[in-house]
Amino acid sequence: MSVLEQIDTVGLEEAKAVRLMNRMERKYVASADRLDELLERMADHYFVQQVNGDRIAPYRTLYFDTDDLAMYTMHHNGKLNRQKLRVRTYRSTDTTFFEIKNKDNKGRTSKMRLLMDVQMFDHPEEVPEVREFVVRNTPFALCAGIRGGMRLQACLENRFGRITLVDRGMKERVTIDRGIAFHNRVTGWDADLGGLLVIEVKHEAGTPMSEMERTLHEMHVRPQRMSKYCIGTALTNPSAKKNRFKPMMLYIDNLKSSIILPRKRL
Length: 266
Fold this sequence. Notes:
Blueprint: E1 9-10, H1 12-15, E2 22-31, H2 35-42, E3 46-49, E4 57-65, H3 70-76, E5 82-90, E6 95-103, E7 108-116, H4 128-137, E8 153-167, E9 172-184, E10 189-203, H5 211-218, H6 228-236, H7 246-255, E11 260-264
Parallel strand pairs: 1-3
Antiparallel strand pairs: 2-7, 2-10, 3-8, 4-5, 4-8, 5-6, 6-7, 8-9, 9-10, 10-11
């Protein structure tokens, strides 16, 4: 029996009680070979979310940006108030949402989302409710003729498996993403971070250091500023600005020397 299978479970509805739609986030990047050690140390303090018998949920995400990468560039240039727009399919529950993530200048993240048909994953611009949702909540548009150069296009797709942990006090949620792979729909380039974990600790502002954060500190895994969208774009789009993300790219490369470098899809 694997370490993950030995952790007590919590159902989706119970985990939803930890909504944290207005939250503080702290991310960590670690080698995938640290996963079992981390789970062993967390087993008495956290539940693992199980949905339809699965403890690792497959995710598929498609990010949108302008043709000149306006949102990516805002992040790269350190703009504090910024957004990310994406379609995400939660395959374990067969649900798909168009999501808008807002980050303010205090580091707080809020998320708005609109349920949509999974069959429209690749073409949300054809859904009137999605177009209205984007125009109402962002300075961008999913169709031509609205706000000129602010039109969005599908840029980067990623896939990964997610382990979700919920602390036993139901005050904190931790996601552990593994097997992360990117495909850039503009350049045709791919990148694979399969040997890494991206760990995100999510809790309300003002919450003291959690057991997960203390344990990661003891394991010498330090917080990192890491956006999957930005790193995936930097790895797969040769024309994207990269200076701000080079330290993280070097950190990843040192952490996983066998990382599969970006390559052109044949």
